[in-house]
Specification:
Catalytic activity: UDP-alpha-D-glucose + 2 NAD(+) + H2O = UDP-alpha-D-glucuronate + 2 NADH + 3 H(+)
GO molecular function, one term: UDP-glucose 6-dehydrogenase activity
Enzyme class: oxidoreductase
Distance between the termini: 53 Å
Number of domains: 2
Keywords: NAD, Oxidoreductase
Family: Belongs to the UDP-glucose/GDP-mannose dehydrogenase family.
Shape: globular
Bound molecules: nicotinamide-adenine-dinucleotide
CATH superfamily of the largest domain: NAD(P)-binding Rossmann-like Domain
Strand order of the largest sheet: 3-2-1-4-5-6
Amino acid sequence: MRIAMIGTGYVGLVSGICFSDFGHDVVCVDKDPAKIEQLNAGHVPIFEPGLEALMTKNVAAGRLSFTLDLASAMKGADAVFIAVGTPTRRGDGHADLRYVYAAAEEVAHLIEDYTVVVTKSTVPVGTNRQVKQIIRKANKAALFDVASNPEFLREGAAIDDFMRPDRVVVGVQNERAADVMAEIYRPLFLRDFPIVTTDLESAEMIKYAANAFLATKITFINEIAALCEKVGADVKEVSKGMGLDGRIGNRFLHAGPGYGGSCFPKDTKALARIGQEHAVPMQITETVIKVNEEIKRGMIEKLLTLCDGSFNGKTIAVLGVTFKPNTDDMRDAPSLTIVPALVGAGAKVIVTDPQGNHEGETLLPGVVWAEDAYKAVQKADLCVLLTEWNEFRALDLNRIARRMNTPRFADLRNVYSEKDLKRAGFESYAFVGR
Ligand code: NAD
């Protein structure tokens, strides 16, 4: 199969590289000349474990290339994937579809033979039909079908998620498009990974329903954690006891500082908006959005208590600013709520993150960057573990405590035990839900 992939962000790049690894001929396109230049020089512009090596292998095999020119990418393509961003639209929470529609318009003029136009971006119900109309309007003679193929990969584990998915979802309107999609995903089909083939609307809905459900699960345990703190229960024990129930499952039951990232915040908002537009309010999702904001703010209160009621003049070390480990993505990360609150209240904030400084330097003004955790905590009054990178999971706590002005620790990911912290000499500490 020949595939054109529009967008070389987290999803487009991973999908394009993995499709080429399946044996397909893939040309990835982006509008950003700097990204294409970097890719052509053999470097991936994002941090995703294993991605650069997989790219190098497939470029060398002649199956993968990168260009700014969509026309050349679409020459002879069986399918063109739209994997551009769908951020939250300012003001109303709706998914901003302008990049998807602009890509559809460009595609329309370049279709020669039969092509399946596949939307991989997360888009509200009805978008694929809209894409179809845009193409039809711009090119009456075009021979094409549309397909919805939402992506479920997680940043930080993207290659494995793409290569070994829980399922692949494909929404189509006819068998011809279904056959092309089946051929593209044949290597997975052969290895018995389930492929859910459905209509366009259901495919679009599956993605939002799945993300809203996961955001709900996280928020549920975060709310339970807040109650655990008041009643003297330990949320880690509670999660364990709950998660062993097969109907509940133990994943996404780790209490923390609130969900963030490039998907959950924007997709929950978009689902709430879709519900409002159809007069079926998504009350659970709307509450989840609200509670998640409160959870994030609750973390600031927790830190304030550790700082004796005032951040002013305190030195606070923050370990980890990306929304989760193994990614450089900072979109809607809890750090973007917590760190500015500390800076704004007069604290000197020293941050360290194995990959976050590239974006963080613009997104977190007023902080000082340190090379590692030990440098960050030098003379600090409080150390906050915000993202559980491996580097921060096995800290020499004695060394951390010794370097600090007042050894206090806020473990917002519940990595350490009370015993660990006490033994290391921390005079006060806090967890989430314990
Ligand atoms: P991203 O912002 O990282 O990348 C989008 C890329 O598309 C950018 O490089 C941009 O320059 C490029 N682009 C935009 N318009 C273009 C055009 N007309 N032609 C060529 N290139 C164009 O976005 P992302 O994180 O990869 O997300 C893409 C979509 O996938 C979103 O809808 C998102 O919700 C969904 N998704 C993301 C994840 C994730 O973990 N990031 C997971 C599942 C689904």
